[in-house]
Amino acid sequence: MAEGHHHHHFHHKKEDKPPVAVYSETAVDYKKEEKHHKHLEQLGKLGAAAAGAYALHEKHEAKKDPEHAHRHKIKEEVAATAAVGAGGFALHEHHKKKEAKKQYKRLMARSTTISSKPWMDLRLSLLDLCLVYVILLSLTKYPPS
């Protein structure tokens, strides 16, 4: 490697990420989840279109090839069923995507009301624990030694 020549790999400026909701040690990134469901919805639509096209092809083959018409009709029905299933999957993913988008909007609305300093929430909870401890000490006859 030549002197003064340095390779710079992946030094991109990180953008501000949207807030992440935390529920019992699991982080949920609603934007990422929305993107995931959008991708699956598109795959479902693609699958429905492909299966529908194959069903139409088999319907045409059944008319074109009367000797094997029964086989082609069975393939057509299977492909039509697959198209309906893929369409149902796409609809399911569409609803999941809308739900993730709604959760993200709810989180954004809530994040403006919550303090932007997460350690403040922790400090408040520790303060609450200390207050409970002091109250319990004052209520008991024998404080711990």
From TrEMBL:
Coiled coil: none annotated. Residues 1-21 are annotated as: Disordered. Residues 1-12 have a biased composition (Basic residues). Belongs to the abscisic acid and water stress-induced protein family. This is LOW QUALITY PROTEIN: abscisic stress-ripening protein 1-like.
